Amino acid sequence: MLRSRCLRRQLREWPSDVIIAFVDSTNLFTLLATWAMGIPVIVSERVDPRMHRIPRVQRLLRRLIYWRAAAVVTQTERIAEWARRVVPRHRVHVIPNPVPIPAARTDPHMPPIALAIGRLVPQKGFDLLIEAVALVGPDVLDSWQVEILGEGPCREELQQLLVSRGLSDRVHLVGQVRDVVERLSRASLFVLSSRFEGFPNALTEAMAAGVASISFDCPTGPRELITPGVDGVLVPPGDVVALSKALTELMTSPDKRRRIGEAARVSMSKYAPNHVGDQWDGLIDEVVSRVRHRRRR
User: How far apart are CA 153 and CA 286, in angstroms?
Assistant: First the structure.
């Protein structure tokens, strides 16, 4: 409540035509702060609310006050299905994240690198990735390095798993890096092992960079980004054996990696920043026009 009161004071000093809020808790205190102020609020969910648990009080509050939002933006159609049960259908809009398209694809260095990116938390499923890599035959894995970029509370647990699976010399917890684009430019393969997502930015960035990608078909995002076998590979959610088989196939098929990577780069053009920006501009114009029309009546 304190944050809502502080925000309300600021909004009185800085009059606005529309407010855009991102992420569940921010959405809630923004809607509370603008109560009876007549300022339209667009809220955006950035992960699947059915999988990402928030405190029970916040879940109840979301059900009670999201109806005040002028629009609810989700990143995927599957999350939009949830939103349409919370607010009127016409207020729900699907706008993905923008994906910068690198100017050119750099040829990967040797040895080939399989890359994974994300916080070291259970959601990202890096334990599942490690188990899948452990099932790849040594004759295949001996020529590869696997790098996991990111930091988080599960580092020690993952490091212990690497030791127990005998993978300390093949799978590396790199930590945070400054230039993810440069890392992608020299990757031969990208893997998304998440248990759930909203709109997986790391996957889109890899595909835009022309890196052949494998992903769990987790909720939500991968199925809306990947056409299986064309511009990426989807495997059943949490299926370690299927992920291992997919890794083996692409690790041993440079031509297939090249074909999938080139198709992925082309498919990401619809997420270019100017296209996504136009969608946001259109939504903002629609919300502001609707409010002004209502005030003139």
Answer: 42
Under 8 Å between Cβ of 70 and 92: no
When pLDDT is cut at 50, 70 and 90, the band that residue 293 belongs to is: low
Q: What is the mean pLDDT of residues 103-130?
A: 85
Q: What CATH code is carried by the domain that includes residue 92? A: 3.40.50.2000
Angle between helices 254-267 and 240-251 (to 10 degrees): 100
Is residue 154 within 8 A of residue 182, CB to CB? The reply is no
- Are residues 235 and 159 part of one domain? yes
My answer on whether 38 and 176 are in the same domain is no
User: Comparing C-alpha atoms, which of 128, 100, 99 is closest to residue 116?
Assistant: 128
In terms of Cα–Cα distance, which of 201, 199, 269 is closest to 52? Answer: 199
User: Could you tell me the two tokens for 275?
Assistant: 């296209």
Domain of residue 49 covers 2-98+273-296
Torsion of CA 10, 17, 95, 72, to 10 degrees: 70
Rounded to whole angstroms, the Cα distance separating 223 from 215 reads: 9
Alpha-carbon gap, residue 10 to 256, rounded angstroms: 55
Residues in CB range of 1: below 8 A, 6 or more apart: 29, 32
Contact 108, 93 (CB under 8 A): no
Residue range 146-155: mean pLDDT, rounded: 98
Annotate 216-236 with DSSP letters as a single string. E--SSSHHHH--BTTTBEEE-
Fill in the amino acid letter for 199: F
Which residues does residue 74 pair with via DSSP β-bridges, in sequence order? 94
* Triad 192, 194, 199: Cα angle to 5°: 80
CA 222 to CA 199: how far, in whole Å?
A: 8
